[in-house]
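Q: What structure does this chain adopt?
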Amino acid sequence: MTSTAATAATPAGTLVPALTGVVPPVCTPLTPDFEVDVTSLLRLVDFQLAGGVDGLFVLGSSSEVAFLPDAHRAVVVDRVLRHVAGQVPVLVGAIDMTTLRVLDHARRAARAGCSGIVVTAPFYTRTHPAEIELHLRRVAEQCEAPLYAYDLPVSVHSNLDHDMLLRLAAEGLLAGLKDSTGDDAGLRDLIVARDDAGLTGFSVLTGSELTVDNALRMGADGVVPGLGNVDPHGYAALHAHARAGDWEQAGREQERLLRLMRIVRAAPASRMGRGSSALGAFKTALRLRGVIEHAVTAPPQIPLDDTETDYVRRILIAAGLL
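A:
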């Protein structure tokens, strides 16, 4: 999953290979009493590895990071890193409201031996662009692991400034970006600006799992697909087609995954939030596929009912996954 030609620098000055390929944000299986289901978590990790992924991202949005207590986060980091044991890079989300809280998570993940830290802009408080840059600088300078920015405007209510990102990359403070803006034109502009600046070691990963073929054709380095939890093999195949320049096959695989993604519509908006429906659908699909034991989501998310579960089952059958 790495390029030998492109490298990025850590704050300590060490060059690391640029991150490429399929890096799913791993769901966090829970028991009925809301503890981390470690057995299911490690089975899910093995399912991802068998699916041909190039890396793993724990404690991201699809991991329900915003819902998990610190003790749950620690269990996930410790057990996954120990289990993977260097087979693929493991990124850890150090996602929290302010710099000091993020640094607590980041330092612990770095000590545990992660391959990189992922952070958003601060949230809850109103944050000025200068404060966002200061936040990223301080985390990068004080954490001995490559830092990846996470552009998630739906949650932090602001986009990351591209000039700022490339400035930090040029200084060796940022190793890459997960772009979940859904703005394909903005993504292309960033890729062109990165290439014009010669910052090819700065990895640009799309979080828009339904337009991956387009992003890869524009020059994105990889994808962080929530749906990759359910079908890692599909995203690995899509990436392989793109790497081979077979854009017709890549497009066909993307369209198959688009149809599979309809599982996130399982519940009506009148009954629960979009996040409850999507994360509930991912976990329900994983339970139906025999990967995890329970489809429990962290409160206050609302679980899928029997009718909604049957909706997910029918889509999995149509996709050939059951």
